[in-house]
Design goal:
By secondary structure, the protein is of the alpha+beta class. The protein is built from 15 helices and ten strands. Among the domains are: about 120 residues, 2-Layer Sandwich (Phosphorylase Kinase, domain 1), CATH 3.30.200.20; about 190 residues, Orthogonal Bundle (Transferase(Phosphotransferase), domain 1), CATH 1.10.510.
């Protein structure tokens, strides 16, 4: 019988002599022989019973989706389903005979070994919310260099994401940008990725202070000096994205989170546009994002570049100091009317704005992209040295040494409590072997130096 594997028995990797050396290679060969003998013994001792579930440790590799190869992932899912049915049929029909060779199935993804973290290392504390493709939980890491750390665990159903309009592209982009900005100040980064069958788990930074929208709902509007502190951090976040060839395209208060010390972090990379490092022309054409924060050139469909993000920063700056957005419509008016106003009208500047604040906002809300702040000049010349930021020490901003005006009034690690009988593994909605998972990514800063 070809290609059989016992339930809950992990596949083995072919020993690599070049990497292991002679002694370790010989030990690995002996270990592999023992493993084969054990599988053979188990199959002869207890054939699969009728109706018993077969759990192959052979998950379709989610990295195919992360790279944009959605068809390869879908084909792997179908192949895996056919393979399970075939193995189950063969085991029921003909148990392994004495002396028959066992051919081990090697998975296309590396399974979580003893040195890698596993889903069960994360204790779920509370449900944070529900996204387009899955749910988000607050979880605490047990063990490792980051033991006790809190993470937002995002579960993504890959099959469901591929069924949504533009779902695969959003998923791939969000994953890629999360990974690229790990440990970058003011951007939500990725720390771990796990895969269980067609579910992907992303462990990202947790921000207990809510988002900028929550703060604006509470305060209604902020002073210019307070706004300046938040905008300084937002500017550095947006500048970093642009330096790595990414346009965010959905900057708004809801996508600006606040950490336990009051510092901000930009999140939600699903609508980002990535350009290859060698791209000479960085131009996009899709109309996407939130209408209230869309730049005129995006609405007009003429093509756009990084300047659309600075327009959004201008809308956010206006809203923080005014308490309302510069372009508004009545409840019975459509989004089309709102977009017409953005393209055609010049917003009135509230009286509480200083002359410097007014010039700064007008510079960001310039309808002509080539005349907008940061167009044709460096961010340092156009924004960081603008009078609006007089007195700001940018080195202290970058190192998060400035005291922020709002700090969440609680210690998140002490004020959250575990949900009874809730295990992160159970949330994956999969059955079968506990080892049927793969750790696809660990942030470099979390890998022990001896690994």
């Amino acid at each position: 019988m070809n290609a059989v594997i016992h339930p809950c028995t992990p596949s083995r990797r072919i020993p690599d002599r070049a990497k292991l050396g002679d002694k370790k290679f010989q030990d690995a060969v002996k270990d592999d022989q023992k493993h084969r003998a054990l599988i053979k013994h188990q199959l002869n001792k207890k054939p699969l019973q009728k109706g018993e579930e077969v759990n192959l440790i052979r998950p379709p590799d989610a990295r195919n989706v992360c790279k944009g190869d959605y068809k390869k992932f879908q084909d792997a899912v179908k192949d895996d389903q056919k393979h399970r049915a075939l193995i189950k049929h063969q085991l029921n029909k003909k148990p392994l005979q004495e002396g028959e060779e066992v051919k081990l199935i090697r998975p296309p993804v590396r399974l979580s070994g003893p040195h890698l973290p596993k889903l069960r290392d994360f204790k779920p504390l509370m449900r944070l919310g529900k996204g387009t493709f899955g749910e988000v939980y607050l979880a605490q890491k047990n063990g490792g260099v980051d033991s006790g750390a809190l993470y937002a665990m995002k579960m993504i159903n890959i099959s469901r994401s591929m069924g949504e309009r533009n779902g695969p592209q959003k998923f791939r982009t969000e994953y890629a940008v999360h990974e690229r900005v790990t440990n970058v100040p003011f951007l939500v980064g990725l720390h771990y990725t796990f895969q269980r069958e067609s579910n992907l788990w992303l462990a990202v930074d947790y921000y207990p202070g809510g988002d900028l929208r929550d703060l604006l709902n509470w305060k209604r509007k902020l002073t210019e000096s307070t706004t300046r502190l938040y905008l300084a951090e937002i500017v550095l976040a947006v500048d970093h994205l642009h330096k790595i060839g990414v346009i965010h395209r959905d900057l708004k208060p809801e996508n600006i989170l606040i950490d336990s010390e009051g510092h901000i972090a930009v999140t939600d990379y699903g609508l980002c546009k990535e350009f290859p490092p060698d791209a000479k022309i960085k131009r996009a054409y899709s109309v996407c994002g939130t209408s209230d924060y869309m730049a005129p050139e995006m609405i007009q469909g003429k093509g756009y570049s990084m300047e659309v993000d600075w327009w959004s920063v201008g809308i956010i700056a206006y809203e923080m100091m005014a308490g309302f957005r510069p372009f508004v419509i009545a409840r019975d008016e459509s989004k089309t009317k709102l977009r017409q106003k953005i393209v055609q009208q010049t917003p009135a500047i509230p009286k509480n704005f200083t002359s410097i604040g007014s010039r700064f906002v007008r510079g960001l809300l310039e309808k002509m992209p080539l005349k907008r702040l940061t167009s044709g000049k460096t961010i340092k010349q156009d924004i960081m040295q603008h009078q609006f930021f007089n007195g700001i020490n940018w080195d202290k901003v970058a190192s998060k040494k400035l005291k922020m005006p709002y700090v969440p009034p609680y210690n998140s690690s002490k004020d959250v409590h575990p949900v009874q009988n809730l295990k992160i593994e159970l949330l994956a909605h999969t059955t079968g072997c506990k080892r049927a998972e793969a750790c696809l990514y660990v942030a470099p800063s979390l890998i022990p130096s001896n690994e």
